[in-house]
């Protein structure tokens, strides 16, 4: 049984503790609290150096120190506090940093509201479990044999066929029915590769529809997108060794993952609001009456400073956009402002919860929008690497990892 | 369990010579119908509310200043609060800290019993700014 | 009389209130009421989303859910209280009293009720402990 140490404040009083435990249970893990005695608490706070007013946050610190000192045995760490609590947010992030500096335990942070449901945590918990229980599989650097990866995302469905560490077929389509979309891209990718389905030795599925696809295609690997995408990203970028940060601005949520030798050790995913996801760029394109594929190039010709968009919310963001257009701003400037707004929000919402490591690898379908990559580079002060086939990270990761099951 | 259930913690002051084992046996012998569980600091007593309170009163008569009590929300051994299930819960640290404080309360109660009055305390005021200024100047 | 104790899970305050003849209003009672309900199951405490929403009576939506959930537990007790004892600067305040913001609000709500409230300092010395017990006894015995 994998033990996830919970460092938290407010969960039991927000009606979410049950949901956290349910999410952990459903991926074969158990939530535990590192043992501390009253005497440990003051000493721990003193040593840590941050003195919160709230005693429960002091207890979190003492528990983190038990983990850092190896006095309590756990496999992964889940740090969570109430959304909108400033003191909680400060302690949450500093403890995340402390755990990373002092242990090799994978860690994930989360700020919750009373609306949190187990399903929202499932992918995160599953990723923690995968990192712990599939260490050897995640160490895999080369694909072998004939394998297929299917990535059923919220916006698009992708398939990749790989033979002996090379991509020989690929396709994508906007997501509709999970099975139908996957069957369609799989057939096209196999046709491009000149390979029959019966010749495929192993298949890996990931993304929101992974379970349905896994069952339908009898996949050998059904795994959440955090670990699978990370493997795909470092393989595509040829950065399998050392550290990196992977930014994946998805259709419905954004992911920021730090990796060490291709294995994630900290990640953030989505959050309270999806306003800053790729969906906003789709909405912008629609309003500009262009294809989303044209948005990036348009944005590259504009200047975001001319049409400011300062919103956390896609609805208000579109209002800003409409106002800018009404004021006679150019489509180029508006497109650039939309890209900049998404990049800024990823920086503000996701990248504040991890410590960015270099290089930065930007992946996912939105990494093909050049204006967005430019904006991310501007906001971070470093141009991200966009590997070839960057939209296929999930499918490549699925094909790569599933070859470990042959 | 019915709403008439009462689970009560009896805690022995660190200043007492009574042991948890003695206390648990005493409670058990005076109220055989309650469940008694010995703990590091005293015991947990569980049963119908009236019976548990009767036991509390009798223990208080015997050890008025050495045994303290409060109710506990969870029944004894409830898996939702059991240490073996998850590790210690936050309330455990609270109890540990309060236990250390009990010898002081015991002392206070004994003084009250002897009819002693309050001790005059002088509260130290913060150093006036002009005085502080003078000290700074003198040590420049 | 019904006397609210703060910290609401304090053993010492609970004991003193009972000892000097009153009914302590504590977090333990509020939680027991919830966990003994078999029909709801939101372990460990059965604080449900409805409770957290009820907490809006005491604090707005911009206040963290943990504060509102806690206030949903203590709020009705404060409404019911006829007197209160508050231990200021208690060095022990874990578990259900773990959130400083909630505790500030609890003290404020007690003040607003206009009921008799005794503030006691956490004692550092034996003499202070003696004064602490004397103050608590006088206050509690004086409640009619």
How would you characterize the overall build of this protein?
The complex is a heterotrimer of chains A (406), B (140) and C (144). With 406 residues, chain A is an alpha/beta fold. Among the domains of chain A are: 2-133, Rossmann fold (3-Layer(aba) Sandwich), CATH 3.40.50.11900; 138-227 and 393-405, Nucleotidyltransferase, domain 5 (2-Layer Sandwich), CATH 3.30.420.40. Chain A is built from 15 helices and 13 strands. In chain A, strand 6 (156-163) and strand 7 (166-174) form a beta hairpin. With 140 residues, chain B is an alpha+beta fold. Chain B has a single domain (5-113), classed as Alpha-Beta Plaits. Chain B has a four-stranded antiparallel β-sheet with strand order 2-3-1-4, with helices on one face. In chain B, strand 2 and strand 3 (42-48) form a beta hairpin. The longest helix of chain B is centred in the last third of the chain and has 24 residues, at 90-113. Chain C is of the alpha/beta class. Chain C has a single domain (2-142), classed as Rossmann fold (3-Layer(aba) Sandwich). Chain C contains six helices and four strands; from the N terminus they run βαβαααβαβα. Chain C has a four-stranded parallel β-sheet, with helices on both faces. In chain C, strand 3, helix 5 (100-113) and strand 4 (117-121) form a beta-alpha-beta unit. In chain C, helix 4 (65-80) runs parallel beside helix 5 (100-113). In chain C, 53% of the residues are buried. The model of chain C has no long low-confidence stretch (mean pLDDT 88). Classes of the chains: A alpha/beta (406), B alpha+beta (140), C alpha/beta (144). Chains in contact: A-B, A-C, B-C.
Describe what is shown at a glance.
The complex is a heterotrimer of chains A (406), B (140) and C (144). With 140 residues, chain B is α+β, with helices and mostly antiparallel strands.
CATH topology of chain B: Alpha-Beta Plaits
* Count of alpha and pi helical runs of chain C: 6
Reading off the top of the CATH hierarchy, the class of chain B is best stated as Alpha Beta
Q: Helix and strand succession of chain B? A: EHEEHEHHH
SSE blueprint:
The complex is a heterotrimer of chains A (406), B (140) and C (144).
Chain A: E1 2-8, H1 17-26, E2 29-32, H2 38-48, H3 55-68, E3 76-82, H4 86-102, E4 107-112, H5 118-133, H6 135-138, E5 146-152, E6 156-163, E7 166-174, H7 178-193, E8 202-207, H8 210-216, E9 221-222, H9 225-236, E10 243-249, E11 254-260, E12 263-269, H10 278-288, H11 292-300, H12 314-326, H13 331-350, E13 360-363, H14 370-380, H15 393-402
Chain B: E1 5-12, H1 20-30, E2 35-38, E3 42-48, H2 49-62, E4 67-72, H3 83-86, H4 90-113, H5 129-138
Antiparallel strand pairs in B: 1-3, 1-4, 2-3
Chain C: E1 2-6, H1 11-19, E2 23-25, H2 27-35, H3 49-54, H4 65-80, E3 83-88, H5 100-113, E4 117-121, H6 126-142
């Amino acid at each position: 049984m994998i033990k996830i140490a919970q460092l938290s404040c407010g969960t039991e009083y927000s009606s979410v503790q049950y949901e956290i435990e349910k999410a952990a249970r459903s991926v074969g893990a158990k939530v535990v609290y590192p043992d501390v005695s009253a005497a440990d608490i003051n000493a721990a706070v003193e040593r840590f150096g941050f003195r919160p007013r709230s005693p429960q946050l002091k207890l979190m610190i003492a528990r983190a120190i038990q983990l850092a000192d190896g006095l309590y045995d756990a496999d992964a760490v889940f740090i969570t506090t109430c959304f909108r609590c400033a003191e909680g947010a400060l302690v949450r992030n500093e403890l995340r940093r402390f755990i990373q500096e002092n242990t090799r335990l994978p860690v994930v942070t989360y700020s919750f509201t009373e609306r949190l449901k187990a399903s929202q945590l499932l992918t995160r918990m599953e990723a923690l479990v995968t990192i712990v229980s599939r260490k050897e599989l995640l160490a895999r650097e080369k694909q072998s044999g004939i394998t297929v990866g299917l990535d059923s995302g919220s916006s698009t469905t992708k398939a990749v066929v790989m033979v002996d560490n090379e991509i020989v077929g690929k396709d994508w389509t906007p997501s509709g029915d999970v099975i139908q979309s996957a069957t369609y891209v799989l057939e096209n990718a196999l046709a491009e590769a000149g390979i029959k389905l019966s010749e495929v030795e192993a298949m890996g599925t990931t993304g929101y529809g992974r379970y349905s696809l896994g069952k339908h295609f009898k996949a050998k690997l059904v795994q959440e997108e955090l670990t699978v995408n990370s493997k795909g990203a470092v393989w595509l970028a040829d950065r399998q060794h050392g550290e990196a940060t992977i930014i994946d601005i998805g259709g419905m949520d954004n992911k920021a993952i730090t990796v060490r030798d291709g294995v994630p050790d900290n990640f953030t995913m989505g959050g309270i609001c999806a306003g800053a996801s790729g969906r906003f760029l789709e909405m912008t394109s629609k309003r500009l009456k262009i294809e989303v594929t044209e948005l990036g190039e348009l944005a590259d010709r504009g200047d975001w400073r001319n049409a400011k968009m300062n919103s956390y919310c896609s609805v208000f963001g579109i209002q800003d956009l409409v106002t800018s257009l009404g004021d006679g701003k150019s489509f180029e400037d508006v497109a650039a402002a939309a890209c900049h707004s998404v990049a800024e929000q990823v920086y503000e919402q996701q990248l504040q919860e991890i410590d960015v490591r270099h290089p930065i690898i930007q992946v996912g379908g939105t990494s093909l929008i050049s204006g967005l990559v430019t904006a991310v580079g501007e906001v971070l002060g470093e141009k991200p690497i966009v590997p070839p086939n960057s939209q296929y990270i999930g499918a490549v990761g699925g094909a790569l990892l599933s070859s470990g099951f042959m | 369990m019915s709403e008439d259930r009462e689970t009560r913690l009896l805690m022995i002051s660190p200043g007492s010579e009574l042991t948890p084992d003695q206390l648990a046996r005493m409670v058990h012998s005076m109220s055989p119908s309650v469940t008694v569980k010995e703990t590091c600091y005293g015991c947990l007593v569980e049963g119908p509310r009236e019976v548990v309170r009767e036991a509390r009163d009798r223990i208080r008569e015997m050890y008025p200043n050495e045994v303290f009590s409060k109710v506990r929300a969870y029944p004894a051994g409830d898996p939702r609060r059991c240490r073996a299930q998850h590790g210690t819960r936050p309330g455990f640290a609270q109890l540990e800290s309060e236990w250390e404080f009990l010898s002081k309360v015991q002392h206070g109660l004994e003084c009250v019993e002897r009819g002693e009055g309050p001790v005059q305390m002088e509260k130290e005021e913060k150093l006036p700014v002009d005085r502080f200024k003078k000290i700074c100047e003198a040590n420049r | 009389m019904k006397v609210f104790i703060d910290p609401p899970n304090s053993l010492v305050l609970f004991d003193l209130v009972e000892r000097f003849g009153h009914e302590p209003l504590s977090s333990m009672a509020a939680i027991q009421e919830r966990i003994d309900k078999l029909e709801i199951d939101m372990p460990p405490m059965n604080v449900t989303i409805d409770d957290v929403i009820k907490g809006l009576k005491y604090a707005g939506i911009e206040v963290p859910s943990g504060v509102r959930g806690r206030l949903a537990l203590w709020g009705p007790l404060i409404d019911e209280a006829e007197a209160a004892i508050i231990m200021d600067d208690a060095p022990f305040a874990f578990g259900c009293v773990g959130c400083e913001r909630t505790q500030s609000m609890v003290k404020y709500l007690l003040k607003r009720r206009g009921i008799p409230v005794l503030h006691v300092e956490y004692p550092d010395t034996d003499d202070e402990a003696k004064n602490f017990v004397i103050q608590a006894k006088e206050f509690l015995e004086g409640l009619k």
